[in-house]
């Protein structure tokens, strides 16, 4: 956009963006990583770093049958676990973090996944992004997960100018209503995978086109 928006104009544009996303994708909370328990989701999210959710789901289908309790992960053999999760990439560090994380869950948290950002980020392999996934999906705590899609598309839509995930999270928390924090993660990931693809955005097909300062105009 050539001219600068007033705060009121930006707020109205954001309202229209959220309404369009709700119409297109609905307002149901959903998680792309298969899990039955909070600790399974935590392990799946640790494995999802630099890996697709689809690949993680393939691996966890067998993994969660083999290690069907938190204690089995806590007591797992490192080399064996590395082989079990090899195809997710960065398997040495992931296996090491999973074992250390599960030991802490058993020894320090009574087998429960904690809910505060401070307790979660104290666990091995758990950064702010992972912690917010847990808080949003397990505890329904309003949170914004800044992954690559959320970072790129939020910048494109003019909701932040930052490259820093923590600053982007703060900017989005100010710009978006609290009841859409979790939905923003879900909607923008879906948009980023289907339409606003990093290397070849389909701007001509995008239902947010008229509200997007970063759109690519054809011709």
From TrEMBL:
PANTHER family registered for this protein in UniProt: A/G-SPECIFIC ADENINE GLYCOSYLASE/ENDONUCLEASE III, ENDONUCLEASE III
Cofactor(s) demanded: [4Fe-4S] cluster
Cofactor note: Binds 1 [4Fe-4S] cluster.
Matching InterPro entries: DNA_glycosylase, Endonuclease3_FeS-loop_motif, Endouclease-III_FeS-bd_BS, HhH-GPD_domain, HhH_base_excis_C, HhH_motif, Nth
Record's function text: DNA repair enzyme that has both DNA N-glycosylase activity and AP-lyase activity. The DNA N-glycosylase activity releases various damaged pyrimidines from DNA by cleaving the N-glycosidic bond, leaving an AP (apurinic/apyrimidinic) site. The AP-lyase activity cleaves the phosphodiester bond 3' to the AP site by a beta-elimination, leaving a 3'-terminal unsaturated sugar and a product with a terminal 5'-phosphate.
Superkingdom as given in the UniProt entry: Bacteria
EC number assigned by the record: 4.2.99.18
Gene Ontology MF annotations: 4 iron, 4 sulfur cluster binding; class I DNA-(apurinic or apyrimidinic site) endonuclease activity; DNA binding; DNA N-glycosylase activity; metal ion binding
Name of one Pfam family that matches: HHH
Family, as annotated: Belongs to the Nth/MutY family.
Residues that coordinate or bind [4Fe-4S] cluster: 196, 203, 206, 212
Keywords: 4Fe-4S, DNA damage, DNA repair, DNA-binding, Endonuclease, Glycosidase, Hydrolase, Iron, Iron-sulfur, Lyase, Metal-binding, Nuclease
Residue ranges of every copy of the HhH-GPD domain listed in the record: 47-194
GO biological process, one term: base-excision repair, AP site formation
Record's catalysed reaction(s): 2'-deoxyribonucleotide-(2'-deoxyribose 5'-phosphate)-2'-deoxyribonucleotide-DNA = a 3'-end 2'-deoxyribonucleotide-(2,3-dehydro-2,3-deoxyribose 5'-phosphate)-DNA + a 5'-end 5'-phospho-2'-deoxyribonucleoside-DNA + H(+)
Protein name: Endonuclease III
